[in-house]
Amino acid sequence: MxxxxxxxxxxxxxxxxxxxxxxxxxxxxxxxxxxxxLTQLTAEGYQTTKRYDGADLVVVNTCGxxxxxxxxxxxxxxxxxxxxxxxxxxxxxxxRKDAGGHNMVTAIHPKVLAVxxxxxxxxxxxxxxxxxxxPHDPFVDLVPAAGIKLTPRHYAYLKISEGCNHRCTFCxxxxxxxxxxxxxxxxxxxxxxxxxxxxxxxxxVVSQDTSAYGVDVxxxxxxxxxxxxxxxxxxxxxxxxxxxxxxxxxxxxxxxYPYPHVDExxxxxxxxxVLPYLDVPLQHAHPDVLKRMKRPxxxxxxxxxIARWREICPEIVLRSTFIAGFPGETxxxxxxxxxxxxxxxxxxxxxFAYSPVxxxxxxxxxxxxxxxxxxxxxxxxxxxxxxxxxARLKRRVGATMQVxxxxxxxxxxKGGVGRSYADAxxxxxxxxxxxxxxxxKVLKVGEFTRAQIVAAEGHDLVAQPI
Length: 466
Ligand code: SF4
What we know:
alpha/beta, six-stranded mixed β-sheet, 21 strands, binds iron/sulfur cluster
């Protein structure tokens, strides 16, 4: 789990500006919730800070996905209470109940002022208003059109929907976030345009189930820029691609389940409208395990689908996550998974050893495996996945790639660090940039450079800017 504390914006110093400490824990979806709250706080004239002391109250945005995240979130709340005393809690943990059916946060920390679930900007704002009235003069003009971003200025997450219609047996997200609710396509595209205009060079599309975008509204036709646009993955990606092209930026798709209609998006990748990169959380490969997991698209022939994707767009990079040691997983089923990862040539794979989550249906499945077996399978999986990944990376040596620069001290005179289309921020590898050979060449954060790949180092590449 990531843990971040952020400050954003300043306001005129003539009056006492109410100050709010803000801490955000969890995944990119929690991060976008945090961004919405920070944007609203700033729009109303509050000042936000990453410190607890000196703040008038503290908002803690929590994660409740796995036990470690719950502990981390509860500890953050305890710390905020000890150091400040006035604390509002939001996020996934806020929606969780303990064994007695009581709210977990208030049961452990009864002194918190208010608790909300995830995706609850308005409820959080209501609680803030109750305990710290908003300043008289809202400094709306101080807020950039793109809102307040918690990521570096050159990349941003774009959440297209909230919730999920599936009921995977290992997951409690639907019980915390509810069924799928797609954002209106006009709002999503307007936010994307504001982000590009605000300097974002890479937009990462996130949701619980990106492929399902629009299912809940029956792919209703919305409007954007005076034109009708369907609330549908293909239409969204095509429009985002056009916007990105106009601004010289990238669009990257995350959490895409391999439904047949995803095939339509591949030509957009082949045409260079969106990055040829798909984050497809498969979790397993064996049909029986997928059924026990109740996974979406579990009946799909994923090897054939991936082969077709590579035919349409040979440069596509695939990222996926898997679970090893799910209840009842036999050695043969696990071996099937290893064979799949090898055969599918998954470029970037992550793996968790199965860990029961409070309230998940999988806890009641027969055949729970000992922790040592789950961990051993995770290690065996990663050995195979890493061998595939490293071999695929090595094939890039000698190629020239476009690299988005994430860090470049002293204008890159000593080199820098960036990412190619094959690397999503935080989760994939990086491209280490050598110092430019031409004295006139400078490297700047948030800009692109062409670079020739000279070596592969584990999950990363080394490149010479040209
Ligand atoms: S698709 Fe499955 S794992 Fe993903 S959020 Fe929905 S229920 Fe959870």
